[in-house]
Structure formats: structure tokens, C-alpha cells
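User: Sequence in, structure out. Go.
Assistant: Echoing your sequence, followed by the C-alpha cells.
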Amino acid sequence: MTAANNELEALGGGCPPRVRLIMLCVVILPFVGLAAVIAMLWHVPFQGTYLAIMVGMYVSTGIGIGTGFHRLFTHRSFSAGPYVRFFWAALGSMAIEGPLTTWVAEHRKHHQHSDAPGDPHSPHARHDDYPTGIRGVVWGVWHAHVGWLFEKTPRDLERYVPDLLSDPGASFVSRTYWMWVALGLIIPAVLGGVLTGTWTGALLGFLWGGLVRTLVVHHITWCINSVCHLWGTRPFRTRDESRDNPIFGILAFGEGWHNAHHAFPTSARHGLAWWKLDINYIVIRAMALVGLAHNVRLPSPDRLAERRRVK
């Protein structure tokens, strides 16, 4: 077994029962946190502090996924130095969507086989043993949204990420994934305790900024896989069913402009119209202005015109 295989197994590609148990906990525990928050509202007065912690963690880890995991590491739509790369790798890991190396490998595989057999999370790719009719539609949405997480991780993922496996910083963050997960849960707990001066505040900081925030970030991200391949507009010609969805264009900080992304995967900007808000691109442009990002990639006007659908 190669060193790359060893690393991918350490990141979650090992024994399926163990991986499925971990995935089950990752999916269910945020709902437990939400239930605990609702139950505690009967006994502890709500404070805006907890909502502020939740929103702050949602924004930071959501942008960590979109700007860091997705646009920097997966598609290399801009360049950055080792410290900036380390920052985005760590922040994205706190979103609890899997280690950097595995996340990037799965996403690159998605683009290679988008909405065709081999796509890890398409609502459209089908096999002979899949259900048909209404059951098939429901199954497709479920599979694209969350069901794919419980399938066995393919052993060929290493071939999708040779650049990251040879990057010391990216490999370190991937190997220490659970440390960053823990830090992403500890930070809101500490903030809640410090800002309220109570242990109850620490608990509620953990619940709101840790578990509830994870629930929100997860399902908004997973809607890019499911909703944005089913509902929305298709302003550009692509070989798949990717859609621009304005709801998730906003909630996912620009990731929901998904048809534009599939038309121009290496573009640092997904909202390719002035009115399509793209927070992740604004972050990238801000980094470029202060010298933290370089080689920001955008499609030329000719390429935009070439791929645009004629109305």
C-alpha cells in the first residue's frame, strides 16, 4: 500500500462500518444539538450573543469551505502562500465536512463525471438496480444530498489529489483533521463562556456555534449537490444538469451559482453577473488587494460569450 493510500485511509477511507458510524454521528449529532437548544429555551432566556456566535461560525466555516476547500484547493482558481493556504485548510476543516484531501478528491471526481456514472453525488446518475418513477426521484435527491456519504470511499481517490498529497501543509491539516474539528467546537464554547461569564453560556455557545452551526453549514453545502442539480437556471451550456440557484447563491456565499461554476470550473468568480452576489469572490478579491492572493483566474469575455445560452 502506498503512502498516499495510507493517508487516505487515515482520513476516512478505511473499514466501511467504522466510516459509516462516523458519518451517522456527523449527520445526527447536529440535530441532537438543535433539539437541546430548543429544550433549553424553556429554562434559559435566549440571548442574541448565542445567535451572533452561531452566525459568526457559520460565515467563517462556510467561507472556509467555499473559498478554501473549493476555489483554492480543488480548482486552484487563485494562488496563495503557505500560511494563507494553511489558514484556509484549517478553517475549512472546522466545517466538519471531511478532511481536505478526501473532500477535494471527491469534488474533482464529481467534476470529471458530473451527472454521469462515477459522480459521487448526482441526483441524475443511475444504475440498473436504482428505483424508477417517483421513488427514483426521491432516491436521487436523498442520494445527492446525504446518502452518498454512507457509501464506501473509492480506493482511486489518491489519483485526484497528487498535488495535495505532496503538499506538507495540506497533508498535515488532513492528517490532523479531528484536531481542527475539535477546535471548531471549542471556539464557540469558549466565546459563549467568556461573553456571558457562565458555564451555561459555554454550553449554549457550544450548542449554537458548534452543533447548530454545523447543521446549517452541512445542509446548505449538501444542497449544492442536490438542489443545484435540479432547480434553477442554466445560463451557460454544460454537459450536466447544474443550475444557478439564487437562494443558495446567497446562503452558500456564491457557491449556488452552480451552472456558471460547471461552465467555468477554474473561475474564482461564480456569480458571473453584477447582481449575483458572490461573497467568496469578494473575499478572494480582498485578499488579492492586500497581496495575499495571486493569479486570480476569471473567464475571458470571449469564453463567456461562447458558453452562454442563446435565448
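User: And one key feature?
Assistant: Residues 131 and 139 are 7 Å apart (CA to CA).
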